[in-house]
Amino acid sequence: MVQQTFPIGCIKKNEYMSWYFTTQITDRVRIELYDGAKVYEDAVKCGTDIDVPVIMGTGLCMAGQPMIKFESESGFGYTPSSHDILAGDGSIIGHKFTVTGCRDTNGTESDVFFSLTTSIVKEAAGTVLEKEFIAGLFYKYLVLKDKYLLNYISDKKIAAFCRAFDASYVLGMDYKRWYESERANCMSEEDDYRLILTTLMKYDEKYTGSGLEYFPYNNFMVMAFGKKIWNENKITFASCPFQNIRGLLLNGREYSQFVDTQKELANVELFDDKMLKTAASHASLKSKLGMCATKGLNYKNLGIKVFAQDDKVQEEVITKSIAYAESHNARILIFPELSVNEDKLQFLEGKLKPSSPLKLVVGGSYYKKSGDEFTNTAPIYVNTGSEWKKAAEYNKMIPFSMGYTDKVAKAYGISTAQYPLEQYRLLVEDIRLDNNITILPCKDCVVGVAICRDVMDILDKHNPAHKYCDFVDVLLVISDNTGDSNMFVGVAECLARWHNCGTLYTNSVGEAQHGETVDQYLEVSFGIYPFKKAESSSSTSVSGHITYKLTPTQDMMLSSSNQDVMIIHSQGIKMEDFSDEQIRNCCKIYKFNTLM
Q: Using an 8 Å Cβ cutoff, are 61 and 78 in contact?
């Protein structure tokens, strides 16, 4: 093993340090961070190929002049850098020291294989320091929460920590100092997890009733401070125990998009007087989608591409849906998956005016070509007040697939002579999959975006809802589904009941049409959100008494006499459930109400 040591300057005794280490290599790398009086054992780990930090920690410098000692299987160069950490008034409250390791011993190669950043903050750091500490603690919680199954409601150790906190609490309490003092009583990692959970739950109470604030943290995580939009108490054990603080791990691309999008959405408010009006374009009966074979894939799969066929119908749907959404003062409008082709995006953008009540539009999706591959990409537009901008994009994670039969081939005009049935078994959407989520941090709520099968099955580990269900307030799902919608509605109900997340879903109405009949098991659009007016009747539900609505096209509002939760059930709809006005305008309005 080759050993190298780097001193960290600009630090004094009793100043606060936080550190994290990232690497994209599988080489074995051993790291120690020490200051002559103490070795910080949290900072010892081997290399890994994941793209989130593998070590991080916090603590007070017990002596002075901390040192970072690296051991690796081969030598490497390094590039140190540093800058001051400034408070809001411009005063220096700390220092950030970064060492970037390179394959080249001269430290000049771009092949970076590790980066270690240490933040040193003076004791009088205040709010920035506190949030950084909480963010670091929340990271540890996210890493450990699936490792230990604790009934934190009745755990005796957690109860003891809570009593200790309550006994020592004073206004303006230093959570970091309390945590560090109690950590001396932790004899195991599991006890440390209990202490982390206790500290976060107590800190969560600090932000009760406060507005939403975002705190991007160290290029791999974001925190949101402030109550989730729905006024709902979580009592389900499996749910996240926090109401007012949220943390989410992101990879580099997701983090960059979050930070860039946050700038565009900084002043965008979606709720008006505690109500969110949303619009779901369902296209029209004339807007049939086409399908064509692209290339043979592995394992007897035939790649397919789905596309909208009629330019004038697309323009009609865009024009009518926007006008109808605006006439009802909707803040959000979503178009179905693959309903707006790439060459129609300019037409869509031209219909969006800054004076519109609309604030956020998901422009359906289209096949975006990159080299020889396609992604199923949804453009996301935001109204900044002075102009509309494309704030972000979301690429589909899970492809559409269906059995390749003679009936299917005839329905979609695929030549069985060119693509014999005996040669292919499945039709699989021929797209490059993208494992990056898209988060839209608005001023008053957090929004997630997904496409069709990305959220069809709650048990699918690739379902992005697993990653951010406790972080977002509203999930926008666009689809071109031609089958049963039970799984979509089931996921939406789970998100509403257990994660305080509302779901707006839309589909192409043309795809529900089979000749003269309508698929009675296909919701063309629906809205589900956590709204409770009755006391909970079950230990496993935060939603109270449930009334299943058989017509999801009803306004999502409670009458004054109705004391039931507003969640619909997947019983399927018929075309006559839409009013003539809604069919004519290719759009349906849903109202998500937070009033209790």
A: no
